[in-house]
């Protein structure tokens, strides 16, 4: 009897240890998703207000709509908006959430929850800020903004919250449309962008690196292969520990352990519905939290990784598994919004669940040589725009 009790005790301890492993933490926490409301019809982009968890924003065919009661009721607050960019305060900061929108008249800003709007000076952007289709702040310094153009190509940078802009496309291919931006947490002057192409010819480079805060760029794509099928692209970049990951539309994930000098294929969730089991699902977005939790939105559902992309698990309530979802992750707070239809759900990714090993050098397949980045870079100090600087617009030829 005593022997049996000892066996049962040991088995219990083993089970408890297994459930306490970091790799299971996120799976256990995912049961705490909360239904909070519904989405307006026609929504294609979703965001939350980092300072006010009751305030949500939805962009769709009716412009920007706002909810102040966690999705129970919605009202239109900007009918002209064609894009929406939400900049939430950094942890511990008391700043207001900033809401940017592209309209026919240019770039506009609201700092009071979409109640009122003001024009953002876009001095230096040619020919019109109405062509801005992508905007992001510099990590840890929200006075620095980057704006990517749709239809004209190119990238612009502001160091004074949009009062002045300067061209930041030197080294980027003509017609490149910037899709995401990520800065090295340890070397903030090292900035990386991913691009897609809309022209008839597509260069093999889809990732570019800058060591001067985004003014000049060099290809950083050695080992990355993207199928040039019209919408093939690197759709997102994200840091997890010392690993930089790149998500492609159809060609899975890539990882760099040497600051983007070389890349190798990384583990990608396998499709489970509607496709061959060996194929990778279409990736629509990738996000990461300050702790390094990675979240993917794919055609086969949402996935999360807490070990730097070495393994993936289904992310979200059980009824959303295998379903394409509209997903938003606030990278500052870890707050997540998800909808697989009209029902809207929320969840906060807990801190301290990651278990990310130190990156080891990777050997990438042979590819066009990419000049390595300098091993040491100075602390990033924004370079103010020159009063006489001008930006040159590069037309993108129509798609075939």
Order of helices and strands: HHEEEEEEEEEEEEEEEEEEEEEEEEEEEE
How would the global form be characterised? globular
Please give the largest β-sheet.
4 strands, antiparallel
> Count the strands?
28
How far do the termini sit from each other? 78 Å
Which regions contain 5 or more consecutive residues with pLDDT less than 50?
A: 1-25, 362-400
Structural class by SSE content: mainly beta
Q: Provide the gyration radius in Å.
A: 22 Å
Instruction: Tell me the strand order in the biggest sheet.
Output: 1-28-27-26
Number of helices: 2
Helix share, percent: under 10%
Mean pLDDT: 78
Topology record:
Blueprint: H1 2-20, H2 22-29, E1 34-38, E2 43-48, E3 56-60, E4 63-67, E5 75-78, E6 83-87, E7 98-103, E8 106-110, E9 118-119, E10 132-138, E11 141-149, E12 155-158, E13 166-167, E14 176-183, E15 191-197, E16 207-210, E17 218-219, E18 234-240, E19 243-248, E20 253-256, E21 264-266, E22 283-288, E23 294-298, E24 301-305, E25 313-314, E26 326-329, E27 335-339, E28 343-348
Antiparallel strand pairs: 1-28, 2-3, 3-4, 4-5, 6-7, 7-8, 8-9, 10-11, 11-12, 12-13, 14-15, 15-16, 16-17, 18-19, 19-20, 20-21, 22-23, 23-24, 24-25, 26-27, 27-28
What do these coordinates show?
Helices cover about 5% and strands about 35% of the residues. The protein has helices at about 1-20, 20-30, and strands at about 35-40, 45-50, 55-60, 65, 75-80, 85, 100-105, 105-110, 120, 130-140, 140-150, 155-160, 165, 175-185, 190-195, 205-210, 220, 235-240, 245-250, 255, 265, 285-290, 295-300, 300-305, 315, 325-330, 335-340, 345-350. The protein has a four-stranded antiparallel sheet, with no helix packed on it. The longest helix has 19 residues, at about 1-20. The model is unreliable at about 1-25 and about 360-400 (pLDDT under 50).
